[in-house]
Amino acid sequence: MMFRATTRIPQRWRTAFQNASDLRSLQRRHSSSISIVDLKDLQAVRQAASSCGFFYVRSAHIDQAHIDSYLDAAAWLFSLEPQFKRACASSAANAKGWYSYDGVAVGELSRAPIEAYLMGDEAPAELRTDYFGRLGYGRDDMAWRRMPMHQRNRWPQAGPESAAFRATVVDGFKRLLATADDVLAALAAAIDRPPHELVRLHDKHDSHLELKCYAAPQPEPPTSRDRRWQQQLLPNVSQPAAVDDTADDLRTVRLKAHTDLSSVTLLLQSAGHEVLQVLGADGRWQPVPYVDAAVLVNCGDVLERWSGGLCKSSLHRVVDVPPARGSRYSIVLFAFPNHEAVVQTEADGRETLFGDLMPVQ
């Protein structure tokens, strides 16, 4: 079944970089930071992971048709009437489902919220019994089974296309998990560890998939007050992109600078939006180019710990979507290890388990 989203991704942006010369130009511009890596080339994998920690891969499990279908599903969901989104919204009792939030700190300039939809395994509590058993909880103890992140997925119910949405998102989740396993095996081998060591630590596939919508802000010219406010924000942890005085819109931080609490994060995104930026070693924010039919990988905090700092978990952020280019959609897999997996061992023998790092269980 085809999705009929009221807000579609313009075709001109889907195909913007399909021309080979355009892609080579992008690769030359960004060759110092973001590369396309063959997972069989372990030296290239090691170089990419140890430099900025961001790189593209061609997945054996996902082609451009898959990517288009997943982005279409996201566009369908976020174009639903508010009552349908509220019906599958996350809550204090269940963190899964639709939600909306500001990606900047209180008091910072934001033109529009970010919409998101979170899903994962249908029975995550069953995957975490070993970890909570080590903490002294019984298998059926409701004290931990009722935690918000241990609940079932909340699926939209908005007519016949709802079933197609669910099937498409589940398919994307499975294919991205398979891609993450390939990436983890290559990363382990690239840093001279047993190839399947990382895959084994992730074999429960207790990960999260998040669909996101960065709606284009209204193209309102910035006021002098906006500009003064923008300059005052520069010393903050979440620093806005440089203001272009010749632009029609004020480019601000949409999702503030952060690293990911994951082993690896895999991203699929709509074309035509160079709004994702990575902080380079020179202290400059570098845009991440769009690459057709590829999956963007970034190393997370867990992998940096596990590798003793060899794999870099770099700061990254999202700036405003240019109004003329429409909304930006993305599909993000946060690949987490099993809750009971050891991610770091101190000199005195103390172990840090992944479950110890999770801020919300």
Evaluate the radius of gyration: 20 Å
Q: Helical stretch count? A: 13
Largest sheet: 8 strands, mixed
For the record, give the distance between the C-alpha atoms at the N and C termini, rounded to a whole number. 36 Å
Mean pLDDT, to the nearest integer, reads 81
Helix content: 25-40%
- The succession of helices and strands, N to C, reads HHEHEHHEEHHHHHEHEEEEEHEEEEH
Quickly give the structural class. alpha+beta
- Based on CA inertia axes, which overall geometry fits? globular
What report would you give on this structure?
With 361 residues, this protein is of the alpha+beta class. Helices cover 31% and strands 19% of the residues. It contains 13 helices and 14 strands. An eight-stranded mixed β-sheet has the order 1-2-10-7-12-5-4-3. Strands 6-11-8-9 form a four-stranded antiparallel β-sheet, with no helix packed on it. The longest helix is centred in the middle third of the chain and has 30 residues, at 161-190. The chain is globular. 39% of the residues are buried. Residues 3-32 and 221-250 have low confidence and may be disordered.
Key structural traits:
alpha+beta, single chain, 361 residues, 8-stranded mixed sheet, disordered N terminus, 4-stranded antiparallel sheet, globular
Question: In summary, what is this structure?
Answer:
The chain has helices at 11-14, 20-29, 42-50, 64-78, 82-87, 124-127, 129-134, 142-145, 161-190, 197-201, 224-233, 301-306, 354-357, and strands at residues 35-37, 54-57, 97-101, 114-120, 208-214, 253-258, 264-269, 276-279, 285-287, 295-299, 316-319, 328-335, 342-345, 351-353. Helix 4 crosses helix 9 (161-190).
